[in-house]
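ESCALATION

Customer reports they have been waiting on this structure for their group meeting. Please prioritize. Original submission:
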Amino acid sequence: VVAVVSVGAEQAAVRKSLLVPANFKETAPETYNVKFDTSIGEFVIRVTRAWAPNGADRFYNLVRNGFYDETRFFRAIPNFMVQFGIHGNPQVAKVWQNARIPADKVTQSNRKGFITFAMGASPDTRPTQVFINFRDNTRLDGMGFAPFGQVASGIEVVDKIHTGYGEGAPRGGGPAQGRVVAEGNAYLTKSFPKMDYIKTATIQP
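Update from on-call: job pushed to the front of the queue and completed.
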């Protein structure tokens, strides 16, 4: 009984911490690995901070605090990339929408297996969403998309992520990002049952 209460308290503490983006300020190690346990298997991302320090620091803080746990690969486009990083709890997703990090210089190319923060109209509009390139997408380099890591193992797992829903509405049949933010995993699991997801993302020793 004590163990159950302890786990519940820990989970509640993690959820509470996710509501305060301003506290996510730790500097990441120069290199670190993140293991993703997903609905289709495991893969590991190796991050190199020197490539894009702001992105590497934000990713490190998000992973350490469990932000990506139970999040969905909500935008997976064949022969392009797979995107994730909208929290499954709408309350959490909302507070992170404008928690942006400064721009990073593009020092690496968006090649197959490289991971990069998604952004809006400019590189200083990056909160939590990231994508992994399914192929070489070097045209993104000139747009300011700065890779901060790459798949170190399990690229075959990444390649298996379900892409059947394609681009989101209104351009395609996939989920509308506005609804993902507003309704979270409840919307995704009901409307897109084949969508793959992250069980846990953890920093490796």
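Sent to customer with the following note: The chain is about 25% helix and 20% strand.
Escalation resolved.
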